[in-house]
Specification:
The chain has 430 residues and is an alpha+beta fold. It contains 12 helices and 18 strands.
């Protein structure tokens, strides 16, 4: 292994249980931020722990700023997900273990590998320092970066850059260098059915009055055809060349080799470049508490993932219109819009991305892959909105084996090293 410091540093980071979502771990989040700030301070950077009025502790650091040089911002996050079911872990989540070249621990891949990557890149570049370097290690990504806009407003000078490298994505497969070129957008909301009647015995009302569940089920069934294709009109897929996923790969990523998939021409395009709607929750009495009554009120939470180029406002309108047009029995149905966010489309032919691709070809054995992400990364959208002239680069050391957010999270140490070498070269030649 080329750099044993990677293992040592990553091990120290993952031993700190910086779970941002749990009250009992807030001191750990602060300890994690302080530890990382000290790391960059030891390298000679101006480094501090800070937060906005409401946000979790984050780290900001920078080299001495030379106005004549380009500026590169390196982003990662140090907060992690809760452990979940401890019985499903084969190792202690916060006691790192190396097994067949992978380091197992919560937060190893998502995203303390990103912190290690940036630290090593900075260390490699300090002697020549071809660019200004800024560091931003966030402390609340795992809870949706709720105060990112506020944080940027208060720290704009420390964050503005020509290039923003976000090391919170990953590789399509272990050993395959990958650039994420798209993220889907999102709109969601709640369908509310209210028949404006009292609960009535099914023997009296069944078959003569449409109950809330009947209405809701009809609306839900209107969203897809038998092939799983979305039937909401007016949504346009994004056109882009992407790495083609096999059905075996998709099943593996779902951790279910026995699941049946819809038949389609391209799983990649369906997951990354086309709209997809899911029902996330339904308010209903549990079966154990059921009584022989027709239910007059019901709710369902719907989530609509958007093609990267789709306008969220337009999509929300199309979703609401579809619900209205497919409400049966002249029922009283309301759609309450909630969250929305625009997707991201990145051109790998941009200046820094091109340099990085050249570096990937130098340091990795496999060809560069281009992939999308089916989900959304809220903070990335905020960066794009706040810094529209910055080139956004999405990379990472994670892979399909990494189990981010799940038990037995891990990361390939060799891939971290290759990413460090690639970024070092790309920045040196930028």
């Amino acid at each position: 292994m080329k750099n044993p410091n990677i293992i040592e540093l990553l091990s120290k980071l993952v031993e700190i249980p910086s779970i941002s979502s749990l009250d009992e771990n807030q001191k750990d989040v602060l300890d994690s931020a302080n530890y990382i700030a000290d790391l960059f301070k030891e390298l000679g950077l101006n480094s501090k722990v800070t937060s906005s009025k409401n946000s979790k502790p984050a780290v900001l650091a920078h080299t001495e700023i030379d106005p004549s040089k380009q500026t590169v911002l390196l982003y990662a996050h140090h907060d992690v997900q809760p452990v979940g079911d401890i019985n499903k872990w084969e190792t202690d989540p916060f006691k790192p273990e190396i097994i067949e070249g992978r380091l197992f621990a919560r937060g190893s891949g998502d995203n303390k590998a990103g912190v290690v990557t940036h630290y090593e890149v900075v260390k490699n570049l300090l002697e020549t320092l071809p660019v200004n370097i800024k560091i931003f290690v966030e402390g609340e990504e795992e809870i949706g970066s709720p105060y990112m806009t506020e944080f940027i407003a208060e720290n704009r000078q420390d964050l503005e850059a020509d290039v923003i490298v976000i090391a919170d994505s990953g590789n399509i497969k272990s050993g395959v260098p990958t650039i994420t070129t798209s993220l889907r957008g999102l709109v969601d909301g709640v369908i509310v059915v209210d028949q404006q009647m009292e609960p009535v015995h099914s023997g009296l009302g069944g078959g003569v009055v449409p109950d809330a569940f009947m209405i809701l089920s009809r609306i839900i069934s209107s969203f897809h055809n038998d092939k799983g294709e979305l039937l909401i009109e007016g949504l346009t897929p994004t056109e882009q060349d992407v790495f083609e996923l096999s059905d075996e790969f998709v099943k593996s990523s779902l951790s279910s080799t026995g699941v049946n998939l819809f038949e389609m021409d391209s799983y990649s395009k369906r997951l990354w470049l086309e709209p997809a709607l899911s029902i996330l929750a339904i308010d209903a009495p549990p079966v154990a508490e059921s009584v022989n009554l027709l239910i007059p009120k019901a709710k369902a939470k719907v989530s609509l993932r958007l093609p990267p180029t789709e306008d969220p406002d337009h999509a929300m309108n199309m979703l609401e219109q579809h619900i209205k047009e497919n409400t049966p029995f002249n029922a009283n149905v309301e759609f309450i819009p909630e969250a929305k966010g625009k997707g991201i489309l990145v051109d790998p032919k941009n200046e820094f991305s091109s340099k990085l691709i050249e570096s990937f070809n130098k340091h990795w054995e496999n060809e560069v892959a281009y992939m999308g992400v089916g989900g959304s990364i809220p903070f990335a959208n905020v960066f794009i909105n706040e810094f529209p002239n910055s080139e956004i680069v999405l990379v990472g050391a994670g892979d399909e084996e990494g189990n981010a957010h799940a038990p037995n999270e891990s990361v390939n140490i060799s891939d971290i090293q290759k990413l460090i070498d690639s970024l070092t070269d790309a920045i040196s030649n930028y």
